[in-house]
Design brief:
By secondary structure, the protein is an alpha/beta fold. It is built from 14 helices and 22 strands.
């Protein structure tokens, strides 16, 4: 597949790295010479210097025979114009654009991006995706990551293993015997930045980050199993009144009538704007790094602080300070990958990365065939893929132990009608099953071949 990636920032670079690693023909366009140099030096792709909204630059980049254009520059307008030109002049079949500004995303203007107007096939709003990601973490206190599959009947959950976990040092194969009716599959373990694709004799250790697939109806029991019995937050402090903080407060007001929300915003005019548009949220104007403001927000009695300003360093510092003042849990927005190793040692409970969320959303539309959703872990190091099985697949009708899955690949769950099945070795995939597959990045191509007829991966 030939793909044009417009924008060589963190998202564009990682999408290009991901797609080129799967032997796609990738061209990256950016007007910043330093970013283009980084792409040329670090990736096996073609790099073009220039504005992706200019027809001559798109032509030079090979738009005439491109299969897809992914526009993720820093400018909404450049992203939209790139898609328009790719459609009007070069007839590029699939066009994806990142659009940040809420003014473009109002329901009243939903027809703007139709084929007859501004032809963009997929609009991705990082702010809206982050709000959803934070809301999911609030739904499962103790989770460092969570997303849903099969209309939320199945969840992927990430947790950090602490001293209260009752199954530390227990071989994973014994968990099935100990909890035969608990629908859980452990698919991935991160131990001191080392990736472990678990086998039956592997054990969980204190400090591990563990990702498991679970029947949504068993989520509470599963969290207890991994040592997390935290109660859902009823007292919440949001730091940052930008698009993310404002949307999160508004969403929680609608969904949770009994929740007490306080929001801290540094800029006075923005604080007034947000206060006028929220019904039950108490808005405080001030610096969240100021102890007096935190005390005014009653941070010591809050179950959770959500820090979503546009400054990574401030987010991390406020989170640490809030926990020092007695807040039980901190969820933090972090854009830069360089800060990721600091999150756990500093006591921050969960980090949300707009970059990783955007990569996941884009991959959903890059994967061809009957793919319903994709979730990328660790910047694309591994993927959870939900796809529909067709009866002609080689894996349909045979026990999973005979399906010759590539190393590290696990089927985390099957959804058959209304039934969620956590598979064992003798489980047989049937036609029309929704299959939740975990795959390390270097095994994705092998999985594509294994499921090529059934799931239509490329």
């Amino acid at each position: 597949m030939k793909v044009l990636v417009c924008g060589a920032g963190q998202v564009g670079f990682n999408i290009a790295r991901h797609l080129s690693g799967e032997n796609n023909d990738v061209t990256v366009i950016d007007h910043d010479q330093e970013r283009i140099r980084k792409v040329s030096d670090g990736l096996d792709v073609q790099a073009v210097l220039g504005f992706a909204s200019h027809p001559d630059i798109l032509e030079q980049s090979g738009a005439v025979d491109a299969d897809m254009l992914i526009a993720v520059t820093q400018s909404d307008e450049i992203n939209m114009v790139s898609c328009q030109i790719a459609h009007s002049l070069f007839n590029v079949p699939t066009k994806i654009a990142r659009v940040r500004h809420l003014a473009y995303l109002e329901p009243a203007w939903a027809d703007l991006f139709s084929r007859d107007h501004l032809p963009i096939d997929v609009i991705i709003s990082p702010e809206a995706e982050v709000v959803s990601a934070v809301a999911r973490r609030l739904e499962a206190p103790g989770a460092i990551d969570m997303t849903g599959f099969a209309d939320n009947r199945v969840r992927l959950v990430g947790v950090r293993i602490g001293e209260t976990c009752p199954i530390v040092n227990t071989p994973l194969r014994q968990l099935t015997e100990m909890f035969p009716d608990l629908n859980v599959t452990i698919v991935y373990i991160l131990r001191e930045d080392k990736s472990i694709f678990p086998h039956g004799m592997d054990q969980l250790l204190i400090g591990d980050e563990v990702y498991f697939v679970v029947d949504s109806g068993h989520l509470g029991r599963a969290m207890n199993l991994f040592g997390h019995e935290e109660k859902e937050a009823r007292r919440l402090v949001i730091v940052g009144g930008g698009n993310i903080g404002f949307q999160l407060a508004a969403q929680l007001e609608k969904a949770e009538s009994g929740i007490n929300i306080k929001l801290i915003e540094f800029e006075k005019r923005r604080a007034e704007y947000v206060a006028d548009r929220l019904d039950r949220t108490i808005v405080l104007n001030g610096d969240a790094l100021d102890t007096e403001i935190l005390e005014e927000a009653n941070i010591s009695t809050a179950e959770t602080v959500v820090v979503v300003t546009d400054d990574d360093q401030a987010n991390i510092l406020v989170s640490v300070l809030a926990k020092r003042h007695g807040c039980r849990r901190a969820v933090t927005l972090v854009n830069a990958t360089t800060y990721a190793p600091l999150i756990s040692p500093l006591g921050i409970d969960a980090a949300v990365s707009p970059r990783e969320i955007t990569v996941s959303r884009i991959l959903e539309h890059v994967r061809r065939g009957r793919i319903r959703s994709v979730y990328a872990l660790r910047g694309g190091e591994a993927e959870l893929i939900e796809a529909e099985a067709m009866e002609t697949a080689s894996v349909v009708g045979v026990p999973l132990r005979e399906a010759r899955m590539p190393k590290g690949v696990l089927v985390g769950a099957l959804v058959r009608g209304e039934q969620v099945i956590i598979p064992r070795g003798d489980t047989v995939i049937e036609k029309n099953d929704l299959v939740i597959v975990f795959a390390p990045h270097d095994a994705v191509k092998k999985v594509e071949k294994l499921f090529s007829v059934a799931l239509g991966f490329f």
